[in-house]
Amino acid sequence: MSGLPRRLVLGIGGGIAAYKACELVRRLKERDVDVRVVMTAGAEHFLGAATLQALSGQPVRTSLWDASAEAAMSHIELARWADAILVAPASANVLARLAHGFADDLLTTLSLAASDRPLWLAPAMNRLMWAHPATQANVELLRARGAHVLGPASGEQACGEVGEGRMLEPEAIIAALSIFEAPQMLAGRRVLVSAGPTHEDLDPVRFLGNRSSGRMGFALAEAAAGMGAEVTLVAGPVALATPAGVDRIDVRSARQMHAAMLEHAPGMDVVIGAAAVADYRPEQRQTRKIKKQDDRFTVTLVRNPDILLDLAALSPRPYLAGFAAETEALEDNAQLKLQAKGLDLIAANLVGEGLGIETQDNAFSVFWRGGSTVLPRAPKTDLAVSLLRIVAGQLAAKGGRGT
Ligand code: PMT
Question: What's the pTM?
């Protein structure tokens, strides 16, 4: 249940980011997506068709006038075959030609012929080319016609400059595509997500923390936004980029996260607690760095407030989804937390030894009052969509906001 299109035409434009298309094809194939690659003339300067043919397991199309390929599958047939078109990288030239309806090569022609299918664009170019008013106007035109524009990201560029224009990483592109089968299921909904660890300071240089990377919560925020929700993400200290279209609030400690979540929860339809919140904090935060003294050093910890428990007391109360991170007795502990925290749903994951926390993949046992399901091991981006489908379904069944 990946939510990805089953049949995808991947158009590759000219640019150094074309090398990432190889990884993209590989990861799409791992998820059972049937990929047909179409390269522009520019892309052929950067990549060999043989590489992509080997990775996709299908002939690579490069020309509108390729007689043998035309006989097997014309641009019309290719357009009809595809569930969706993804162009990655989408160069400034490809964006301009798509925006203005050119049909002078296979990619632009089939994009016109497939204009009833979703079009996803992952731009990649030098930062000044991206910022140029002509490029921005082309992107706006494409967006206004319904194209999904993914990124670009900021950072160091192949040309040595730093700025906006890097193509999104393959996993981020796949995450965005994975809402294909769940479009707009959360349209009109407001969703609040917590993600990442909290850091509880001992002194100006030391803290108590945990291994949460924030990936699970960020994947949920990204998927919820892709499914049409207005999303606010309260993030502990993590090194992740903000997903497109998501409002982000950065916090450090459990008490800061508690304050931010309680401030933003009123008016939300759904609140999801994916953060690994510290249950305890040092009773005292020293203002100066603690010096080495005796062999033993004792720190007194005090309880932090329970964010989900306090959210459950709101009236009206949003739909509340929590997580249970366990190393044993997954179901028993999850059921206890579902009841004790007054949740509508809980996603239980085993953590440690390469699972759940810090990892790219996860697996859930999901429980709600009167039901349960298992979401088997998958990338967190895919699981986020699957979990949100369940949430959206329950929300629709309830017919509105919380209880
Ligand atoms: O960030 P990643 O590396 O991607 O890892 C993902 C994850 C393992 C952190 C995530 O999937 C997860 O399980 N998050 C919850 C971790 C956790 O704190 O679990 P818990 O069983 O201790 O807490 C139960 C629930 O209560 C959680 O929803 C938690 O957000 C919430 N909680 C906990 C403590 C507290 N003071 N307030 C809370 O609201």
Answer: 0.76
Q: Would residue 1 count as lying in a domain?
A: no
Structural domain contains residue 23 = yes
Counting ligand 1 atoms within 8 A of each CB, the residue from 281, 308, 327, 359 with the most, and so the one to mutate, is 308
pLDDT beneath 70: ranges in the chain: 1-2, 66-74, 400-403
Backbone angles phi, psi at 25, to 5 degrees: -60, -45
What CATH number corresponds to the domain at position 92?
A: 3.40.50.1950
224 and 344 assigned to the same domain: yes
Ligand 1 centroid from CA 161, angstroms: 39
Does 373 lie in the same domain as 232? yes
> Which of 240, 279, 311, 323 maximizes ligand 1 atoms within 8 Å of its Cβ, making it the mutation to test the pocket?
323
Residue whose CA is at the smallest distance from ligand 1 atom 23: 324
Q: How many domains does the chain contain in total?
A: 2
Q: Element (H or E) spanning 270, and its range?
A: strand 270-273
**Tell me: the pLDDT tens digits for 300-343?**
999 999 999 999 999 999 999 999 999 999 999 999 999 999 99
Whole-angstrom distance, CA of residue 149 vs CA of residue 134: 16
Atom number in ligand 1 closest to CA 358 = 3
Q: Which domain holds residue 78?
A: 7-180
Do 302 and 162 share a domain, yes or no?
no
Give the whole-angstrom CA distance, residue 256 versus residue 281. Answer: 12
Q: Using the mean position of ligand 1's atoms as its centre, give its distance from the Cα of residue 340 in Å.
A: 15
Amino acid (one-letter) located at 94 = V
